[in-house]
Amino acid sequence: MTPEEFERERRKSADALRNVATSAEKGKGARDSESVLGAVEPVRTSEESSEPRPSDPPAWNPPAPPDLHPVNESWPAGGAKAPGRIAAFVDGARETRHEAQVKFNSDQVRLDNALVGWTSDHFAATHQHYDAVIASMQKRMDDIDTRHRELERELVRHVHEMAQRIDVVLGEGEKSRVSHEAALRSLRDRLRLLEEKLG
Q: With a threshold of 0.70, does the pTM exceed it?
């Protein structure tokens, strides 16, 4: 490379650096991040689902217990006893007692059957109520999990966006540092040229 070509390349590089320095001086203020990255996106959350929100679980309605009145009424079977066996036989009290015992026994059997049915219905109502409570809580927990996943995605997006903005700020600082260095080199070159002309 001849000295003339070298000088020409040097001046071309000096002009390019001078242009960078002047463009940096024109925009002395820091650039707005929105002008570099665009408008800030709003935080996106899921729309309210069209499904109805889970309401409170239905009230627990156990069945009413069976009626004890017939058994209690037939309990004193046969009334008062006759004073003797012969008097009781003649009076027919034994037959009356037998009929009262049969009525009490049948009332007791009906009560036992009603108690078995009531216990079964009571357990069924309890299980149905617990299933409704658990289903409502599970729906609520699923909604919470969905919102947490959405917030996690938004947080990751926000962190990436912040990293981009930090890169822009650091890049702007580096750009201004380079432009200042270029301005200093240009000043040195001009001073050197002036010294050569004067000297």
A: no
